[in-house]
Amino acid sequence: MKLVIAEKPSVAQSLARVIGADKRQDGYLEGGGYLVSWCVGHLVELSAPERYDERFAKWRLEDLPILPERWLYEVSQATRKQYQILKSLMERSDVESLVCATDAGREGELIFRLVYNQCRCKKPFERLWISSMEDTAIREGFEKLKDGTAYDALYEAALCRERADWIVGMNATRLF
User: Fold this and answer.
1) What percent of the chain has pLDDT over 90?
2) What CA–CA distance (Å, rounded) separates 68 from 20?
3) 57/11 Cα distance (integer angstroms)
4) SS3 7
């Protein structure tokens, strides 16, 4: 069984229809040797400054800049249920591997990897890289899945951008 993770429910439904995952479950679709689920955007996000140190709960100039030595992540409260569904799917014994089917690009890669890492998943994954949601493109994409590690640099670039945004955003907002 392969677990396919899309970025949005609508994309997951399109993928599922093409690959034969037509049985609706709570938070995913199943069939044809696949489980197809989705992230609903960012399920895992960088923690707020006060998670690093309680003193950061109050905005004070003398605490700037805030530069975490180790980055902390947490599951978004708004999407916790879908995160738990994905975690339980990743932990299923019949799931041998995953398919990252989030949007083709840096942000899509980040969304999948943060969930994968937060769940402490160690199962191998492949990458579906398509730029069209037409049935033919989806079929061809599944025939040409690439090893997920081929996109490690894209993930690292996404982490750099996300962390730079956090550093600038948190510090500049508090400064001004």
Assistant:
1) 98
2) 45
3) 38
4) coil
Cα distances (Å, whole numbers) of residue 31 to 20, 39, 140, 160: 6, 19, 19, 37
Task: Specify the amino acid at residue 162.
Answer: E
The residue to which tokens 């989705």 are assigned: 38
pLDDT digits (tens, 9 = 90+) for 67-79: 999 999 999 999 9
Asked if residue 170 lies in contact with residue 49, where contact means CB atoms within 8 angstroms, the answer is: yes
Alpha carbons 33 and 5: distance in angstroms, whole number: 14
Tell me the residue type at 55.
R
- The SS3 assignment for 48 reads coil
pTM greater than the 0.85 cutoff? yes
Q: Which two structure tokens, joined as six digits, stand for 27?
A: 């938070």
> 36-45 burial by CB neighbour count: b if 16+ within 10 A, else e?
bbbbbebbbb
CA–CA gap between residue 89 and residue 29 (Å, rounded)? 11
